[in-house]
Amino acid sequence: MEETHVHAVYEAIAPHFSNTRYKPWPLVEKFLLEQEKGSIGVDVGCGNGKYIRYNHVYLMGCDRSLNLVEIARKETSERKNNGDVFTSDGLNVPIRPVDFAISIAVIHHFHTPERRIEAIRHVLSKVKKGGKAMFYVWALEQKNARANFNVEKKQDVMVPYVVPTTKEVHERYYHLYKENELLLDAQEAGGTIVDHGYERDNWYVIVTH
Amino acid sequence: MKLLTTNFVQCAVKSCSSSSNCFPLHFTECELVHEDLEFDEDFIKNVMVKIDWPALLSVTRDIGNNSLPEEKPNIESCDEQVLRDLHLVLLETQIKDGKMICKNCDHLYHIKNTIPNFLLPPHLA
């Protein structure tokens, strides 16, 4: 499931996907700006590296898609950013613990509750005691037109991604989170909730441990 | 791959995570490139607090750089040139191509075009 409907899709759509994902989300930006100067962080599922742009921190971004990581490398290099990129699996990020972590629009691609909780637990294990991690997942309760793909309000769905230039359609797997579900998963993973809420069709949570 | 990153990455093989030999990795056949980045004194000072100095020395020696002192510099009392030298080593020096080997299990990781690959083959993942 994840191999065909997540990993392979991102490899295939990387260039176009990256062109549509350049603007940081405001609350992620706020979280990053709150980190102390010289803090070391990890971005698990960094995609095109759009959050590696704040030079008061050193953010290491990792992603399973080499095509996306190559784009992240090029763009962060052109922006003269602190930080770095590498390829790794989200359930196996090979670093010693750092000061903070983000994982934005990633956890919803794991296809069982156990794997989603394990993914949160793994990210938390890469943050020092007392450090914070922020997670964003797509919400079931979507208020805009994109929700049209899911009129039946199913939680486990395939979301078509159409590449405009070629009209190719790629189906991406998502688990759409219900209200409070992310909080429960984060607590199950051993986290203590610091803040949470809803922004732009997504649930987010800031967790410490 | 910036040298600062080498101070955090370790072997991805699960059975190595409990071994003290999985960090730092051994670097070999490395080709380096320089990339200018803005110097920020406070940033470097705060980063230095988090640096594992013996691990950094191990990696710099692996890549043939013997410029760093045996003891970690005292960042509160050192002059600006020391901090600029650390900025050069940690942030501006990149490994473009090379190999990383785990000192515990001998697994080999590649760095290609400045990107380290920590994805494991199926039998180890």
Automatic annotation (TrEMBL), chain A:
Q: What SUPFAM superfamilies does the record tag this protein with?
A: S-adenosyl-L-methionine-dependent methyltransferases
Q: Pull one GO CC term from this UniProt entry.
A: cytoplasm
Organism's domain of life? Answer: Eukaryota
Instruction: Tell me the InterPro entries matching this sequence.
Output: AlkB_tRNA_MeTrf/Diox, SAM-dependent_MTases_sf
Does Methyltransferase count among this protein's keywords? yes
Which Pfam families does its entry note?
Answer: Methyltransf_23
Alphabetically, the GO molecular function entries are:
tRNA (5-carboxymethyluridine(34)-5-O)-methyltransferase activity; tRNA binding
Asked if the record carries the keyword Methyltransferase, the reply is: yes
Which UniProt keyword terms apply here? Methyltransferase, Transferase
GO BP annotations of the record are: tRNA methylation; tRNA wobble uridine modification
This chain's protein is named: tRNA (Carboxymethyluridine(34)-5-O)-methyltransferase
Lineage in the entry? Answer: Eukaryota, Fungi, Dikarya, Ascomycota, Saccharomycotina
UniProtKB/TrEMBL annotation, chain B:
Q: Principal localization?
A: cytoplasm
GO MF terms here are: protein heterodimerization activity
Q: Name one GO biological process term.
A: rRNA (guanine-N7)-methylation
Gene Ontology cellular-component terms listed: cytoplasm; nucleus
The record's InterPro entries line, in alphabetical order, gives: Trm112, Trm112-like
Q: Keywords on this record?
A: Cytoplasm, Nucleus
Q: Where in the cell is it found?
A: Cytoplasm; Nucleus
Q: Which residues cross the membrane?
A: none
Family to which this protein belongs = Belongs to the TRM112 family.
PANTHER family found in the cross-reference section: MULTIFUNCTIONAL METHYLTRANSFERASE SUBUNIT TRM112-LIKE PROTEIN, UPF0315 PROTEIN-RELATED
Q: What is this protein called?
A: Multifunctional methyltransferase subunit trm112
